[in-house]
Amino acid sequence: MSPDTRAPWPLKLAAAAGLAFLLVPLLIIFIYAFTTEERSFAWPPPGLTLKWFAVAWGRTDLWSALTLSVQVGLISTFIALILGTLCAAAVSQTQFFGRETISLLVILPIALPGIITGMALRSAFSIAEIPFSFWTIVLGHATFCVVVVYNNAVARFRRTSGSLIEASMDLGADGFQTFRHIILPNIGTALLAGGMLAFALSFDEVIVTTFTAGQQQTLPLWMLEELIRPRQRPVTNVVAMVVVLVTTLPMLLAFYLTRDGDQIAGSGK
Amino acid sequence: MTALEGGAILPRRGGIFGALSDAFWRHPKLLVFLMLTPPVLWLGIIYLGSLLALLLQSFYSLDEFSGLVVPEFTLSTYAQLFRPSNFDIIVRTVLMAAVVTIASGVVAFPIAYMAARYAKGKWKALFYLGVMLPLWSSYLVKVYAWKLILAKEGILNWVFEGLHLTPLLDAFLAIPVIGGNSLSVSYTGTFLVFLYIWLPYMILPTQAALERVPVNLIDASGDLGATPSQTFWHVIFPLALPGLVAGSIFTFSLTLGDYIIPNIVGSSRQIIGQAVYAQQGSAGNIPLAAAFTVVPIVIMGLYLWMAKRLGAFNAL
């Protein structure tokens, strides 16, 4: 903007109000985690306490939900890392018939709303008579996690110069040595970032999971249960705060790792 | 070291890895094929297979007496969608998605404009985090935060009380359809939460489109005598429109396909997502749930077709 470098005040006001609208609800979560009020969502909190952190720590149902979420997240991320990297390598290194279709296929599970992916898997399990289990959850999660790994890896492959690979080959390395010593160190941080985002995505996913989980509860399912039929509200407050920290820290770290011009996220959650 | 001793041409690396490496070098297509096979098989079988299963299920029907799914081709399940009670659900969902989309466009535009054209350095980072933190925070926690805010004893009522505006809020809640007992059990509440949660998806593409508007076009417009508002409406806004349309794809599609938000903050009148969840769960009517799921797919298909004509895909 050359003629007027200062923003007009209505624009400033609207943008500031918008930013407040985006950030204030997250701050509120942090305050409620310390409230002494047990029965309602009373504001302002009548007092502040650390007691509920201890209570939450002692809840076994919470720990088993957390364990399941971490297990599902790790296995889904592992699968997504392999599938996403393979796909990105193939798409970015060569021109071949149908690469647009491949990109679309990878993005589709996340571009379509969660109930479609969830209901589609539910229909398939019903037709194939597959009972719900740990692995049905993983199946769903890995499918929509591929896209974040793919996006990060494709961006990095595009920036990795082909002459490095040619130089490695000229110096006598074979394909595997080039992969181990040239390609892997180059795409390493992108894979780390993609993997962390995939884990965060899986850790937080609730809509698809409600269609693919049987009796098992992941942490979001536990939380959903608490939101619909509250048992101990202060414990939910504490869990909410911890979850905000756990899901935003990988995002900040991924931002830090890929900050030189990469796209860090998928096209959407 | 061997490179120095062995002269210009190296001995082949023996063994299976050497052979494989040579084969990949000679037939690059083989390597691409091998790399593509696992992801394509996974997504093809699990994802596309599931979508086909969904379509198949929607043409089955539920036997009203036995409560079992009859695996025979019929259109009767789709006919059920046009029963008044079910059709209302569809109309209500599309209306909600449209209102949420328009509102997020209005709220997102100033933020995107400020971030793209004016914010620098520290402010730019603040705008970035202001969008990315809510985007990557837990979905359920964000919904929960709004339950806290909108609750009868929550912050919003406290603010209204502090400003002595409670009668105004009560008058608003007394309006039929959009009102209710309190904000957390009204359509207005559902709308606010949808708006909050999908807003970053609108800001990001709009900001990207605004950042791509060339400065010299704006200068040229000014040189040719346009006032700032003329420049905005005739130069900047038309160039930002594909970004807004791209954002609207997300807000529209995500609202069509959500059932958690209206379940937690909302009235008892269902939208499509809730109908799908209720039908496949307690009612055990997977065919009807599948037919309901096909509705957002069809609507989104039409929407994407229109968006493509407006050039939204170049802004993604």
Number of helical segments with 4 or more residues of chain A? 11
Number of domains of chain B: 2
Care to count the β-strands of chain B? Answer: 2
Structural class of chain A: mainly alpha
Oligomer: heterodimer
Distance between the termini of chain B: 50 Å
Q: Tell me what portion of residues of chain A adopts beta-strand conformation.
A: under 5%
Enumerate the spans of chain A where pLDDT stays under 50 for 5 or more consecutive residues.
261-269
What is the residue-mean pLDDT of chain A, rounded to a whole number? Answer: 82
Summed up, the helix count of chain B is: 15
Order of helices and strands of chain A: HHHHHHHHHHH
CATH class of the largest domain in chain B: Mainly Alpha
Any idea what the radius of gyration of chain A is? 23 Å
**How does the helix and strand content of chain B classify structurally?**
mainly alpha
In CATH terms, what is the fold-level topology of chain A?
A: MetI-like fold
The name of the CATH topology of the largest domain in chain B is MetI-like fold
Report the helical percentage of chain B. Answer: over 70%
| Residue windows where pLDDT falls under 50 for at least 5 positions of chain B | none
- Tally of distinct domains of chain A: 1
Full CATH superfamily name of the largest domain in chain B: MetI-like
